[in-house]
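Below is how a single chain appears once it has passed through the pipeline. First comes the sequence as given, then the structure the pipeline wrote out for it. We keep one example in the README because the format questions we get most often are answered faster by looking than by reading.
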Amino acid sequence: MQLPQNLENDVFLGMVCQYTCRLFKKGHEANTQTMLDWVRYKNSCQLNEEGRKGSTKGKHFLMPYCSDTEINWDDIPDDMMVAPEEEGGDPSLDLRLLQSARLCTSAIMDVMEIGQKRFKAISARAEMSSMVKPHSNLRKRKRMKLDNPVIVKLVEHMEGGE
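Resulting structure:
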């Protein structure tokens, strides 16, 4: 995974990777729903920014990251730290670069490991609905009960009872 140049360090990369790992653990449908929500957000931003000066020119996706990632504080350079808010408090990591980072469509596809075909399907779904299309009954066979009137008539017909 490659981050924008000003974010290329092990700490930020770990935070982005932690986010994607947690999202993938949730499953395909949750992952798709998250992307669908992001696409809807991107579409609303494009509508609001059309014709305005200083628009983000297609970079509407926010950088996904997990801020509660375990960090080895000895490896953090001083320029990435923020002074404590209270006296005697611990300094914290400066997340402003991650919070302000914007990604274009191809970059978010790389980060989220989504191919072009799947992204197009998600984008098309975002135009019609705010919910992911539920999976159909794949790999499961629905069987009709033997007391179903249709089955009873079929059995009678096949046995020549009618």
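The radius of gyration is 25 Å.

See the next section for the split statistics.
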